[in-house]
Amino acid sequence: MSQTKPTIDFGFTEVPLQEKVKKVKGVFDSVAGNYDIMNDVMSLGVHRLWKRHTIELSGIRPGKVVLDLAGGTGDLTKEFAKRVGKEGKVVLADINESMVRVGRDRLINAGIAGNVEYTITNAEALAFPDNTFDLATIAFGLRNVTNKDKALEELYRVLKPGGQLMILEFSKVTQPLFAKFYDFYSFNILPKMGKLIANDEASYQYLAESIRMHPDQETLKQMMLTAGFDKAEYLNMNEGIVALHRGWKY
Amino acid sequence: MSHNTNETHASDQRTNSELDLPLLSLSKTIESVLNTAVRLDEMEGQSFLSLEDKVIAVTLSPIKQPLYFLFTKSMIAVQSSLVGEADASIQTHLLDFVRLPLNHALPNTTLSGDTQLAQYFIDALCSLDIDWEEQLSHYTGDLIAFKVGHGIRSLFNTQQGVKDTVSQTLKEFLQFEIEAVPTQSQVKRFCQGVDDITTQTNVLEARINTLLTTS
Ligand SMILES: C[S@@+](CC[C@H](N)C(=O)[O-])C[C@H]1O[C@@H](n2cnc3c(N)ncnc32)[C@H](O)[C@@H]1O
Predict the structure, then answer these.
(1) Of A118, B89, B147, B148, which has the fewest Cβ atoms less than 10 A away?
(2) What share of chain B is helix, strand, coil (3-state, %, to 5)?
(3) Does ligand 1 lie within 6 Å of residue A145's CB atom?
(4) Going by C-beta distance under 8 Å and a sequence separation of 6 or more, which residues neighbour residue B93?
């Protein structure tokens, strides 16, 4: 019997499963230094607004314990840390050391310290006990995770009862005409801008492709329910360029 | 261990596609005005110290949904949803809130929960030198500009300063823009309009920044 190695998408390319983690790490290693500029370019600056909405809708309050998974350079961690106060805590967890290092330096420079912890961990095997967090977020990170179902199960596990998961991710544009324009932007303009700014066309190409391979709004909602969440819903932002999925553990 | 399933999730009631952009924009405006005022304050916001790690819900009628003020060492955060109950609640009118620094009092106001805490907050607000009328004019001016369809140009004009007194603008805004908006779909279209303009201005800003950093 012929043994075929399991493969998984890396953007539009199929690669052996275990290689995806390495490849994704490569992408983020190469963009870490330019990551913040890249975010502005990718979203034309609107990512700030999406993140602000996420924070507002989280209902966060002083004393809460937050996990910012795939937290990267710490945009969300920074804002949550300011809100949870001295009694609360935010854990920035990411698989990539370079991203976490850039994030930690940035937060310390911004005077955020004392209630933030930094951890290197894979979303598929979280290094935290059950029922640890009041809130978990994963912003623009889930599409890079190889086994998304496993990551969702892990997120459910580490949430306290009553806790909430928020997934902010590029999604499926709902308006057909706009979808056409958006495709053109992603595949023609974005990689060129990536080359211009970060001299890294390939990584930007991967980012555009990975967005298209990510499950659409309804599929992700179903995946959350299957992973154990007791309630799941989503909110489209800017015609579905980005969707905010929320799941609760009761 | 506390089992907090009976906590209120204020935003639970929203449907999948709704995002209350005017409210989000209001909370953001108030938050940045407050924090700027604290930074410029001679006392560096000392009067807010007794509020640390507390949450106060403020309902500014006729806006139905309360805004939640969170106080930590780093900032005063203002947001439109909260998990759980606030420590204290203040119910007042938006116009009275705006005039607080002038009047040093909030007439017709109901305090509930930890009322002493609520009073600390009111006193602390009075101690700051904030011209809410001027500051909120940007917010209401923007909304009205979107609504009457003057587009980006009038947005920039309003940023340069609104001639009317804000009380007048606010009053008109409340009467004609909030209370007189009859249908859900009109509200939706309006929000979409605000969303679109926000996107466009951010696009513009990002492009300008890119040009500035690459040139
Ligand atoms: C696009 S960045 C997003 C960073 C940040 N959340 C933000 O919104 O700015 C994606 C992040 O996901 C991280 N990541 C990718 N795969 C991961 C995994 N399996 N587990 C944890 N983090 C992962 C990457 O290292 C990277 O920092």
Answers:
(1) B148
(2) 55, 15, 30
(3) yes
(4) B60, B61, B62, B108
Spatial separation of the C-alpha atoms in residues B138 and B145, rounded to whole Å: 10
Please report, for the domain that includes residue B51, its CATH number: 3.30.1050.10
What's the pLDDT at A217? Answer: 96
Check residue B175 and give its pLDDT.
Answer: 43
Beta carbons of A58 and B213 less than 8 Å apart: no
Q: Which protein residue's CA is at the shortest distance from atom 15 of ligand 1?
A: A144
Residues β-bridged to residue B77: B70
Q: Is the domain of B94 the same as that of B160?
A: no
CA-closest residue to ligand 1 atom 27? A72
Q: Tell me the residue range of the domain where B16 lies.
A: 5-126
A74: Cβ below 6 Å to ligand 1? no
Query: Does one domain contain both B24 and B115?
Result: yes
Encode chain B (215 residues) as per-residue pLDDT tens digits. Answer: 333 333 334 333 333 445 677 777 788 888 888 888 888 887 777 889 999 999 999 998 888 889 999 999 999 999 999 999 999 999 998 888 878 877 888 888 999 999 999 999 999 998 887 777 666 666 655 544 333 333 333 333 443 343 334 444 444 444 444 433 334 444 455 456 556 656 665 666 666 666 666 65
With a 6 Å cutoff on the Cβ, whether A96 touches ligand 1 is yes
Q: Which residue of A has its CA nearest to B79?
A: A56
DSSP string, A126-163: -SS-SS-EEEEEEES-GGG-S-HHHHHHHHHHHEEEEE
Distance of CA A173 to the CA centre of its chain: 18
C-alpha A95 – ligand 1 centre gap (Å): 7
In a domain, B40, yes or no: yes
Contact B81 A196 (CB under 8 A): no
Cβ-defined contact of B10 to A59 (cutoff 8 Å): yes
Full-model pTM: 0.78
Cis peptide before B62 (omega within 30 of 0): yes
Query: Distance, CA B79 to ligand 1 centroid (Å)?
Result: 26
Q: B86 with B172, same domain? A: no
